[in-house]
Amino acid sequence: MKNIDLVYGGGNIGLMGLISQTVFDGGRHVLGYFIPKVLMAKERKADMSLHSDAFIAMPRSYGTLEELFEIITLAQLGIYNKPVILLNINVYYNSLLSFIDQVVEEGFIKQNAQHIIVSASKAKELIENLKDYYPCYEEIALKLNWNSEQLRHSQINEIPT
Question: Which branch of life, at top level (predicted)?
């Protein structure tokens, strides 16, 4: 577990506070993006994804789930091709994983898109998954040029007049 830096949402209490302090005390870089203003949320997420090598969701609440599904959606579109890992401590995410299995079974998510999410029950397993990760999003979405100018232009064109 050497040479692993941390980019995260910036909270300094609870589990993330403990993890960030441990990483920092271990001599690694810790970059916290804590921007409390609602208007800056999208910029914060985009910046975090640019500076990270993986997205790891630990047992948390609505904010984590919202960010998790946004990253999964970006991966499905071919915009984000880094590991998306659920740290499934004490089977916390089992119900969510079962739900995703059901949605795939019913045909709402393609079978190969199901592999965007990797689950690990322990930190050591998570590290191994990071080492062995290979994006497998073929046929999910075409690789498009997702620069911000094109996105702004396409959004402007889609506004009804």
Answer: Eukaryota
